[in-house]
């Protein structure tokens, strides 16, 4: 039987997608950031990037929630074979499976097509780290269940309610690469990978795997030193000013900002959070939290937004 891992493009061979890659790396280094949502049209390598990242980190594919999943499959139910034999034996759902996996990730493709009820439950578990099943046919006390949720969506097929969008820690807009050079690099990278992935003597594959190993070690070291990175009062003030300046509702936004900036600092081996770290994560944390209507669509991030981020951070530093 073919090894599904062998068909996964190495993370180092993914071309572009810098914002999604940054979001995934930050969420791995600091799980407190919460889930990551990748929003983009079909064919923009959202799933490829997520699988490549998970394989690089854990050597496995992420636990993946299928479209049309039932409550029992998500939360846990009963083993059908045992029920048919007259015995009731609990079966863990995919939330528990994700928490027990090496990657500690639950991947939901086209999450905007999943029932809001299930999305809300999943996001609640991600936020609290606690799963409590209280249903008509099964009751189970609180269990610690911690994993990172990664979802993808195509905005052309509908959005998520703002209340659900807000509960994702980071949102990475994924767009197609329109310049000839990047498109050429994508084609060349994929074709060479497909031609050489089964060759144990391929220098191309050996180099790609070596770069993946180096990146895994770098992120693991950043995760280990996260707690030593100082959250300065200036950095916290910058996050608060950004929350006010962008008219964020509630306080989740500024908390995610400081947590993501701390992870960014750890990745860059800094000893404290600098204004540039806050700047680098601002779009990912603020894009989906700006004041808007209830359409559930993601407003475009413009150069004016970048300018406003810079002005608010500089105002804090003065």
Topology (elements, then pairings):
Blueprint lengths: L17 H12 L6 E5 L5 H13 L4 E3 L5 H5 E3 L1 H5 L5 E3 L1 H7 L4 E4 L7 H13 L1 E6 L2 E7 L3 E6 L8 H4 L4 E5 L5 H17 L6 H23 L7 H13 L6 H16 L7 H12 L16 H15 L1
Helix content: 40-55%
If you consult CATH, what is the topology of the largest domain? Answer: Rossmann fold
Envelope shape:
globular
SS strand fraction: 5-15%
CATH class membership of the largest domain: Alpha Beta
Cα-to-Cα separation, first versus last residue: 62 Å
What is Rg?
Answer: 21 Å
Q: Strands across the major sheet, in which order?
A: 2-5-8-1-9
CATH architectural name of the largest domain: 3-Layer(aba) Sandwich
* Mean pLDDT reading: 83
Structural class: alpha/beta
Q: Based on DSSP secondary structure assignment, what is the total number of beta strands?
A: 9
CATH homologous superfamily descriptor of the largest domain: P-loop containing nucleotide triphosphate hydrolases
Give an account of the 3D structure:
The chain is an alpha/beta fold. It folds into two domains: 4-174, Rossmann fold; 227-317, Orthogonal Bundle (Helicase, Ruva Protein, domain 3). Helices cover 49% and strands 13% of the residues. The protein has helices at residues 18-29, 46-58, 71-75, 80-84, 94-100, 116-128, 162-165, 180-196, 203-225, 233-245, 252-267, 275-286, 303-317; strands at residues 36-40, 63-65, 76-78, 90-92, 105-108, 130-135, 138-144, 148-153, 170-174. The chain is globular, with a radius of gyration of 21 Å. The termini are far apart.
């Amino acid at each position: 039987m073919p090894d599904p891992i062998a068909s996964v493009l190495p993370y180092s061979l993914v071309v572009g997608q810098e914002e999604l890659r940054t979001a995934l790396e930050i969420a791995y280094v600091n799980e407190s950031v919460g889930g990551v949502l990748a929003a983009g049209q079909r064919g923009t390598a959202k799933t490829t990037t997520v699988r490549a990242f998970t394989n690089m980190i854990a050597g496995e594919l992420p636990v993946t929630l299928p479209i049309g999943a039932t409550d029992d499959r998500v939360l846990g139910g009963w083993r059908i074979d045992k029920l048919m034999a007259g015995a009731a034996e609990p079966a863990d759902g995919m939330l528990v499976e994700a928490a027990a996996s090496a990657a500690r990730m639950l991947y939901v493709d086209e999450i905007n097509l999943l029932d809001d009820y299930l999305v809300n439950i999943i996001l609640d578990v991600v936020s609290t780290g606690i799963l409590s099943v209280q249903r008509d046919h099964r009751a189970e006390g609180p269990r610690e269940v911690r994993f990172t949720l990664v979802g993808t969506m195509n905005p052309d097929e509908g959005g998520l309610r703002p209340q659900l969008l807000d509960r994702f820690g980071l949102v990475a807009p994924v767009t197609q690469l329109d310049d000839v050079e990047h498109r050429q690099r994508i084609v060349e990278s994929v074709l060479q990978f497909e031609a050489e992935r089964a060759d144990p003597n391929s220098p191309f594959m050996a180099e790609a795997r070596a770069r993946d190993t180096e990146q895994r070690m770098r992120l693991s070291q950043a995760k280990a030193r996260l707690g030593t990175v100082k959250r300065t009062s200036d950095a916290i003030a910058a996050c608060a000013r950004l929350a006010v300046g962008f008219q964020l509702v509630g306080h989740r936004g500024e908390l995610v900002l400081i947590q993501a900036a701390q992870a960014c600092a750890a990745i860059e081996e800094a000893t404290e959070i600098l204004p540039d770290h806050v700047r680098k994560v601002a779009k990912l944390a603020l894009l989906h939290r700006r004041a808007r209507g209830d359409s559930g669509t993601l407003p475009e991030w413009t150069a004016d937004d970048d300018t406003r981020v810079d002005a608010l951070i500089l105002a804090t530093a003065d």
